[in-house]
């Protein structure tokens, strides 16, 4: 498994290189630049703007700009944000904990509901409960997350006042105190519920179908013939085999939740990587835009590797060579 992991990690290098070329090219092909999009020419000396473009190398040939960026990038120098006037590394480090916290809570919510509903629907197919769960799945797949977020804010924030509609923590609280952590959980819960529950539908349907399929296999008939209880059959035998499709999603969720948080964080004005990414696109903040895109690409490759490794743990019959 160690050799397999090393080969996969080495194989990521050319993929990340190709990704960097595409990301850099798309960023440079965007109309405008940080100065044209951020500064009003009528209030700023055009000569100063042109001097800044020359100083930052925006007037250099594109291959020279790429080489300068990629050589600095691999050395850990991600550049400076033209919009926030600070190093990109510090900016991402400041926002990353919020996104990770949101992603973890959303992932926990997703798997709790997916396992509960998927196992129930798989054990009792074509019943009223199964049909209700199927109806929820169809609604979850049909409604975009931004629509669900707006509806949730209207009802649970404005009408009922149960959750805050913006921010990650209440202003004025001292970090490290009990009130601070309670406030962070209070602020993250509603966006995490939207992000988690909207992603539950596909998980639930996969688990339900796999449980039904596995319940008809020979090893289940053998277990029933031996007098094994239905609870033990479903919880030990069927569940273990039905978890394999979900393990595939688990690896990809590392990047998917962070990437999917772009819309959710924007709707809830939650200060994380997703909101920062959208701001960087609107403000032509190339350094931030390219760094976050490369980060998501790297997390996608790592998630794929984790999914493959978890295959061998969940199902010992799978061998990674």
Automatic annotation (TrEMBL):
Protein name: Peptide ABC transporter permease
Pfam families referenced in this protein's UniProt entry, alphabetically: BPD_transp_1, BPD_transp_1_N
Species of origin: Cytobacillus kochii
Compartments reported by the entry: Cell membrane
GO biological process: transmembrane transport
Stored PROSITE patterns: ABC_TM1 (PS50928)
Primary localisation category: membrane
UniProt topology in membrane: Multi-pass membrane protein
Family under the similarity heading: Belongs to the binding-protein-dependent transport system permease family.
Transmembrane segments: 9-27, 100-121, 133-156, 188-207, 246-268, 288-314
């Amino acid at each position: 498994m160690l050799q397999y992991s090393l080969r996969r990690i080495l194989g990521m290098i050319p993929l990340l290189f190709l990704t960097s070329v595409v990301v850099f090219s798309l960023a440079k092909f965007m109309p405008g630049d940080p100065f044209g999009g951020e500064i009003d020419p009528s209030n700023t000396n055009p000569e100063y703007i042109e001097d800044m473009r020359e100083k930052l190398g925006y007037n250099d040939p594109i291959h020279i700009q790429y080489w300068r960026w990629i050589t600095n990038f691999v050395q850990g120098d991600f550049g400076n944000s033209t919009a926030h006037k600070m190093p990109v590394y510090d900016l991402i480090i400041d926002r990353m904990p919020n996104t990770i916290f949101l992603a973890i809570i959303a992932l926990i919510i997703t798997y709790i509901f997916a396992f509960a509903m998927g196992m129930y629907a798989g054990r009792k197919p074509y019943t009223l409960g199964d049909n209700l769960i199927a109806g929820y799945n169809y609604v979850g797949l049909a409604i975009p997350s931004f629509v669900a977020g707006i509806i949730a804010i209207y009802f649970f924030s404005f009408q009922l006042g149960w959750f805050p509609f913006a921010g990650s923590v209440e202003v004025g609280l001292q970090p490290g105190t009990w009130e601070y952590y309670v406030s962070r959980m209070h602020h993250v819960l509603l966006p995490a519920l939207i992000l988690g529950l909207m992603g539950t539908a596909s998980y639930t349907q996969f688990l339900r179908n796999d449980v039904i399929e596995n319940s008809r296999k020979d090893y289940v008939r053998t277990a029933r013939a031996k007098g094994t209880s239905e609870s033990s059959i479903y919880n030990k035998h069927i569940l273990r085999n039905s978890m394999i499709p979900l393990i595939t999603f688990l690896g990809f969720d590392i990047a998917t939740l962070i990437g999917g948080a772009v819309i959710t964080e924007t709707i809830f004005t939650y200060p994380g990587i997703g909101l920062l990414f959208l701001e960087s696109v609107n403000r032509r903040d190339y350094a931030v835009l390219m760094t976050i895109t490369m980060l998501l690409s790297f997390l996608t490759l790592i998630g794929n590797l984790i999914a493959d490794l978890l295959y061998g743990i969940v199902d010992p019959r799978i061998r990674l060579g």
